[in-house]
Amino acid sequence: MKFISTRGGECVSGAQAIAQGIAKDGGLFVPETFPSVSEQEMEEMLSMNYAERAATVLHKFLDDYDFDGLKSACEKAYSKFDEGDAAPLVKIDDSLYMLELFHGPTCAFKDLALTLLPYLLREGCNLCGIREQVLILVATSGDTGKAALEGFKDAEGVKIMVFYPSDGVSKMQKLQMATQEGKNVNVLAVRGNFDECQSAVKKIFTSEECKEELKSKGVVLSSANSINFGRLAPQIAYYFSAYLDLVSSEQIKMGETVDFAVPTGNFGNILAAYYARCMGLPVGRLICASNKNNILTDFIRTGKYDKRREFYKTMSPSMDILISSNLERLLFELSGREPQRIKMRMEKLASEGVYEIYDEELESLQNLFWADYCGEDETVETIYEFFEEYQYPMDTHTACAMYAAGNYMAGDETKDGRPMVVVSTASPYKFPQDVMYAITGNDIKDSFKAIKHLNIATAMKVPASLSKLRDKPVRFTAVSDRDKLYAEVLKFVDKK
What we know:
Elements: E1 2-5, E2 11-13, H1 14-20, E3 29-31, H2 39-45, H3 50-61, H4 67-78, E4 89-93, E5 96-100, H5 111-114, H6 117-128, E6 133-139, H7 143-152, E7 158-165, H8 171-178, E8 185-190, H9 194-206, H10 208-216, E9 219-223, H11 229-248, E10 258-263, H12 268-278, E11 283-290, H13 295-302, E12 304-306, H14 327-334, H15 339-352, E13 354-356, H16 359-368, E14 369-373, H17 376-390, H18 396-410, E15 420-424, H19 432-440, H20 447-458, H21 464-467, E16 479-480, H22 485-494
Parallel strand pairs: 5-15, 6-7, 6-9, 7-8, 8-16, 10-11, 10-15, 11-14
Antiparallel strand pairs: 1-2, 1-3, 4-5, 12-13
InterPro entries: Ser/Thr_deHydtase_PyrdxlP-BS (IPR000634), Thr_synth_N (IPR029144), Thr_synth_N_sf (IPR037158), Thr_synthase-like (IPR004450), TrpB-like_PALP (IPR001926), TrpB-like_PALP_sf (IPR036052)
Family: Belongs to the threonine synthase family.
Enzyme class: lyase
């Protein structure tokens, strides 16, 4: 399997795509063709555990990797999850299910990929003959940063530096990163929002001058964001696994379609569902759920992507994004894989802040995706009402997806009773004050008091990794301007 850039030109192996992270022309790597998973292969996957299913799906794309090595890496990665099943599917009622992706080391869906990425990157470097030290740069809106730090801490031959918007993550997310252990890690708060933070990091990746200077120091760059296909690929697996769990529990028959509702910011998670569909998974509609930063809702409804709007800080901070990087990969498919069209649109977005797609592309988009957004009041109301009815607590991001799913199911869009799987992306305990306020009306300022009271109110088990945070020493407190990031990177590289 070869990979090509969304902006044309480059054609590389899977190992190269993962080691490099981003194409030299600034585009994102996509598979040259989509591998297929037949119904017979899915039947065979029914008896597999999650790690085996993940390895099977991954090897479809990464056939230059040894399958046994992939399987072993998956087993090791997912043994760190606390439920015995890395991605359990919970039945809410006859047509509604919750795909819980928060049982990993950092209590967010990013763990499904970032516990595995260290192996994929290390093996990718070995296959490509890369002997230099790898420096991973990560821009995070909250969850990716901690999951990447935890995945790569003390990894041999790797350093990792995470950048987050100084006032754009929750208190628990900030504390998770600030207390990170490991001799090869660094964390830096950046003045500005996530989009500004992400753009500053991308500039380093696409600067030949920066890359040459780092190379002279024996360092090569890579990414743990979902712009790296190695971050995206493991996410495809849990859509297959959720579907197979529905079949094995006799909720559906093999071949029947299922809808998925996904809280969406940078578009990686929902893109993984789309990729699963391209491989043959019977996916009906993909419900793209946004918060008050509803740029994706507007885009899917109108075909116009316009970032010239107010940026809102919300109680679902991991979705506080106006530039959804992975949308470029979807645009590539909608355009009939026209790299020049993609390049033109990305340049227009950078220079003018807006672009529009053609009518036939919009028609294809709307046949696949349905979009809605959830305001702050609706988020609180959804958490409260769902807990009242089902005694099931959900975090603020999942609430956005549940709200959108509810609106979709209540409309005229579907009347065939297809199951709806809502993707639950984070533990409620990562946002304890907001969830506690939604469920009880109590406004608790201290995160750890909120965790305690939320546990009493819901009887939901508190993840050990979060309850232990209170006693961990804070290691990282630095804050930087966006134009100083590369200087901070050099300081970290030179630090012994």
